[in-house]
Structure formats: C-alpha cells, structure tokens
Design a protein that fits this description.
Pfam families: PI-PLC_X. By secondary structure, the chain is of the alpha/beta class. It contains 12 helices and 13 strands. The longest helix has 20 residues, at 2-21. The radius of gyration is 23 Å and the shape is globular. The structure holds 2-acetamido-2-deoxy-beta-D-glucopyranose (NAG) (3 copies). The site of one 2-acetamido-2-deoxy-beta-D-glucopyranose (NAG) has 5 residues, from loops.
C-alpha cells in the first residue's frame, strides 16, 4: 500500500513537472495572449494624453503637466498610445505644451528614440503615436526626425494614405512583420505624403474623436467632434470606418480662464465605475452608442483610477502579463522640486526678462495661471 502511495506521489510529481516544462503555446501580445489574434482596431488601447508633459520634480511639478511618470514608465505599465504636441523652434522640432516657454519636453527625435528603445526591449508590443502638428510640419519635416531616431524600422505603412482602413492587421500580424509602430498626425495633408514617409497617417483620415475640451464630468459624450466635417454626425463617423477615439480627461479652469489638467478629480475621472464622470461607465456608454468599443481612450495621469482596469475590461483581459507598475511618485519635498519652486514656464519667462527679452502678454498669462496654484515662497532658479 505504502509502495503504491509513493508511486502515486511520484507520478503526480512527474506530471506536474511535465506541465511546467511544456512550452507556452503563445506569447502575450500587448500584455495578453488573447489579444494576438484580434485586429488592431478590435481592441481598446490605453492612451496617455500629452505623454511627455510631466508633473514631477523635473518640471517643478508644473500644473501644465499631464502625467506623474515618463513615457517609458507609461509603456511599462500598459499604456499603448502616446500623444504629444510638436512645435517648431530655433532648436528644431520640439515637444512643447501649448508654448515652448510654458513647457519644453525636448526634441521630438530624442523622445522617439526613447520609444524606440522601449520597442527594442519589448518585441511583442504594438505602440501607437498621435502627434499634434501644432506648427504645420510637413511629412518630410517629421520623417527627418523619425529617421534620426531610428524608430522607422518599426513603422507600419497603411495600404492607402487617403481612405479609412476598414480591415486592420491583427496584433500578431504586426508583431510578425515587425511593423509595430502606428503613427498618426493631426493633421497632415495626405497629398504631401510620399512613398518615403507613407507611415505618417493623417489622423482624421483614419480616426474620429469625441470632444476633448471638457471641464465638468457631465460634459463627456460619445458624439463625434473631429474631423469637423463629421461634427455631430456620430453614426456617419462610425460607418465611415474611422476608428473611434474617446477623450476622457478634464480641464480645471484657472485664473483668466486658463485651463490645466484637472488633478483634483482624477480618482473619479479615471475610475472604472461608480464615481462621477468615471471612465468605465463613459466607455460603456460609447460602446452602446457606436455598437463597438472605443479603439483608443486618452487619459491624463494614466496610473490613477486605475485607468487600465477599464481597458482590460473592454478587452476581456483578466490576467495581463508583463506589466510593471509605476514606481513611487516624486513628492514636492524631494529632489529638484520643492514647494518653493516656481513652475518652469514662469521661471523661463522671468529669466528671459532678466536677459532683456520681452515676452508677449499671452505667455505671461499662461505662466501666471500656472503659478496661481503654487503656494509658498519663490525660487527662480530653473
Ligand atoms: C523615466 O523615469 C524613470 C523613473 O524616474 C527614470 O529612471 C528614467 O531614466 C526615465 N527615462 C527617461 C528616458 O527619461
Ligand atoms: C460642461 O458642464 C458645465 C457644468 O454643467 C456647463 O456649464 C458647460 O456649459 C458644459 N460645457 C459643455 C461644452 O457642454
Ligand atoms: C472636482 O474637484 C473640485 C476641487 O476639489 C471639487 O470642488 C469638485 O466638487 C470636484 N468635482 C467633482 C465632480 O468631483
């Protein structure tokens, strides 16, 4: 009897070992094996709105910042769309928040290089970029920056630059072809796109958006807002084949009517349910109205909510693989940032004036509004 028991134990151990050694059938695509066979446009991608604009020690906790953590940490945590604003300056094409005096997050090509390194290290992930083309860069201008960063080796090129794409490849198709980078630009003239830069997709040819300028939780709707030709014509926007993008972030109106990302209500805004203006109910409302889920949802402070919970629920992902949660957040009293620091935009302007420059009134208003939330003493070192 004892012998049999030992044998049974041995057999159990052997089959347990075999189960462990059995090779995994499939690796995860965007954090889940279940997503590999799904079309790019049949899943929901979490987007970090204004991804490079940070509210951390590096910006003296600027109230213009949209996130507590940089783009690399966003991607590590499961964000798969990054948006940014591209501005022309005498230093080249920069990422700036509204104005380069207010917040300058450095060269576009450097940021693209950061994303490329992440993609080098994460070969089973599809990443989307959405660039706001604030100073009308041509496709050629942008392509120069993409080429400089090296990221073009991952670029996906659509079959047509001028018509919405009805059938998008699956994540596995994109991963196998190593064309894992989707790049949308708002906006580009599709007729300026040529064979050397056809990976640059005019956003509103391929995507429609809900309104982005919301200041109250009651403002969120699923109504098409852009492209302007489809404003208010939601059913037509859906049937055009454009992918829906849901903007789900709030602005807080400050001094002089200037708007900044609303941090005070963020745990409600990014919540999966229950709270006023929560992201989960808003996404379900859009899924009902469009008869398909949002393909992209843009949020501020992506780690709050947590926003990824709503996206996992829409995608049916219950057991995500390979995410790294963000580290501890910078605090006002640590490192370069302190409660005595002025926002970067105002520091920049003060230094410009010290150097004899004469910034325009608009720049002062922006920076002053930014400053109006900062309490405590002043420290004008940048
Ligand atoms: C992103 O943030 C982390 C944590 O602060 C830091 O270690 C890393 O160097 C940053 N990456 C880039 C590219 O700035
Ligand atoms: C947003 O909601 C506020 C408060 O209800 C309202 O005053 C404002 O007009 C709304 N804005 C839009 C664009 O609907
Ligand atoms: C948003 O935050 C402000 C400031 O804390 C608060 O007065 C307001 O009631 C909040 N709104 C909602 C809908 O939670």
């Amino acid at each position: 009897m004892q012998c049999l028991a030992v044998l049974a134990t041995l057999l159990a151990l052997t089959s347990a070992a075999a189960a462990v050694l059995e090779p995994r059938q499939t690796t995860a695509c965007n954090n889940s094996p279940d997503l590999c066979s799904r079309s790019y446009s049949a899943i929901t991608h979490l987007g970090a709105h204004n991804s490079p604009f940070l509210r951390d020690a590096s910006t003296s906790f600027s109230t213009s910042g949209n996130h507590y953590f940089n783009s690399t940490i966003q991607l590590d945590a499961g964000v798969r769309m990054l948006t940014a604003q591209v501005h022309r300056s005498d230093r080249g094409w920069l990422l700036c928040h509204t104005s380069c005096d207010l917040m300058d997050a450095g060269l576009l090509s450097d940021w693209l290089g950061e994303v490329k390194i992440w993609m080098d290290n994460n070969p089973s992930d599809v990443v989307s970029l959405l660039l706001v083309n604030s100073d009308n860069a041509t496709p050629g201008d942008l392509a120069t920056e993409f080429t400089r960063s090296g990221i073009t080796e991952y670029s996906y090129t659509p079959p047509s630059s001028t018509a919405p794409q009805i059938t998008w490849p699956t994540l596995q198709d994109l991963i196998s072809a190593n064309t894992r980078l989707m790049t949308f630009v708002a906006s580009l003239n599709p007729s300026q796109v040529d064979s050397t830069n056809a990976y640059l997709m005019d956003e509103f040819t391929f995507i429609f958006e809900t309104a982005f300028d919301n200041t109250d939780p009651s403002n969120f709707t699923c109504t098409a807002d852009r492209p302007s030709s489809l404003r208010g014509r939601t059913a037509e926007a859906v049937s055009s084949g454009r992918m829906p993008l849901q903007n789900h972030f709030l602005y807080d109106t400050q001094l002089f009517g200037i708007e900044a990302p609303d941090e005070a209500n963020i745990t409600s805004t990014n919540a999966p349910a229950d709270r006023p203006g929560n992201m989960g109910d808003a996404a379900e409302a859009c899924r009902r109205e469009w008869a398909k889920p949002p393909v992209f949802i843009l949020v501020d402070f992506f780690d709050q909510g947590p926003a990824i919970a709503t996206v996992d629920r829409l995608n049916g992902v219950t057991n995500p693989i390979g995410r790294t949660p963000p580290p501890a957040r910078d605090t006002m009293t640590s490192g370069a940032g302190s409660s005595r620091a002025l926002p970067l935009g105002l520091v920049t302007l003060v230094n410009q004036v010290k150097n004899g420059a004469n910034p325009n009134l608009g720049e002062w208003i922006w920076a002053a509004a930014d400053w109006s939330k900062t309490l405590g003493g002043w420290d004008t070192s940048p």
